[in-house]
Amino acid sequence: MGDSAVNGISETTGRLALYLLMFFIFQYRYLLGLNYQDKVVYFDVGQGDANLIVLNSDITVLIDGGPLTDFVHKLQKRIKIDEKIDYVVLTHPHEDHILGLIEILRRYSGFTLVLPTSCVNSEIYKELLRTSRAARTVYTDYFSIKADGGNKFEIKYGDTGISKCFSTQKDVNNSSVIVEIEYREKEFLFMGDVEKEREVKFINRYSLGNGVNILKAGHHCSNSSTSEIFLKAVSPDLIICSYGKDNVYGHPGSETLRRFNSFNVKHLDTVKEGDIIINLN
Q1: Which of helix, strand or coil describes residue 169?
Q2: Are residues 27 and 53 in the same domain?
């Protein structure tokens, strides 16, 4: 084989290697973009709840931390390690929602901590309060953010948006903070562990306009939540269920799944799908 032929093969191989390198760089940057752009993440944390919302490429909201003490590592796969968190919402202080927040509150600071109005005396809840480096703490039953995808956003709290807990309600599930996110006319609703009684109070008090696009169903899609009255009122396009495999609680409830079917609404389960990511861009 002549020198010119060898040189031709070398040049072709070199160009191919360069194209492959450029392709992988592009893919890497593309994946990074997906990782940090505006999105909603419903984490697979087993038998528990944890959700992340990134809005306007600047507002970061974390709702619950699930039962995993090392959840912070899972979170940092979805946001930049040095990225701030603006709002941390604990819907209610059961271990399957609170444990993963402890380490996060140690590592991050300057956020607003949103807590339910019920005064709880558990040790894990006391540890969360001791650990928190929040700039501000608000106790409320309802928290909402409306964002336009640009640089405008609006924050609202329920009437009970105050600086200390005041309720001794023993039903911790029904004292959950309900979170509503509106992004470019898309509605996302997070129900914590709210059950049927509180669902009725919620829809009688707050207007959801034309319903919600994605509903994070209450109490891990148990039979005690997501009633027919509530489903009719919020009219979701998609429902997310977060629960663990072979859990002892029987989640999701068979009656609830039948209600989903009767309303012809699709549902996704974190135990089957893994982390569920909704790209808002």
Answers
A1: coil
A2: no
| Integer Cα distance of 84 and 109 in angstroms | 8
Total domains present in the chain: 2
Q: Is 141 helix (H, G, I), strand (E, B) or coil?
A: coil
What H or E segment, with its residue span, contains residue 77? none
pLDDT in tens for each of the 281 residues of the chain?
555 544 555 566 666 666 666 555 444 444 444 455 899 999 999 999 999 999 988 899 999 999 999 999 999 999 876 789 999 999 999 999 999 999 999 999 999 999 999 888 899 999 999 999 999 999 999 999 999 877 778 999 986 667 787 777 678 999 999 999 999 889 999 999 999 999 999 999 988 878 999 999 999 999 999 999 999 999 999 999 999 999 999 999 999 999 999 999 999 999 999 999 999 97
pTM score: 0.86
Assess whether 215 and 98 both reside in one domain.
yes
Could you count the other beta carbons within 10 Å of the beta carbon of residue 212?
Answer: 22
Query: 147 and 62 in one domain?
Result: yes
* DSSP class of 118: B
**Residue of 81, 74, 87, 73 lying closest to 44 (CA atoms):** 74
Same-domain pairing of 247 and 263: yes
C-alpha–C-alpha distance, residues 267 and 238, integer Å: 6
- Matching residue, tokens 């528990």: 48
On whether both 31 and 41 belong to a single domain, the answer is no
- Token pair of 96 as six digits: 């399957």
Task: For the chain, give the number of residues.
Answer: 281
Q: Which domain holds residue 100?
A: 37-279
3-class DSSP state of 40? strand
Distance between CA 222 and CA 225 in Å, rounded? Answer: 6
Q: Same domain, yes or no, for 9 and 65?
A: no
* Same domain assignment for residues 171 and 45: yes
CATH classification of the domain holding 218: 3.60.15.10
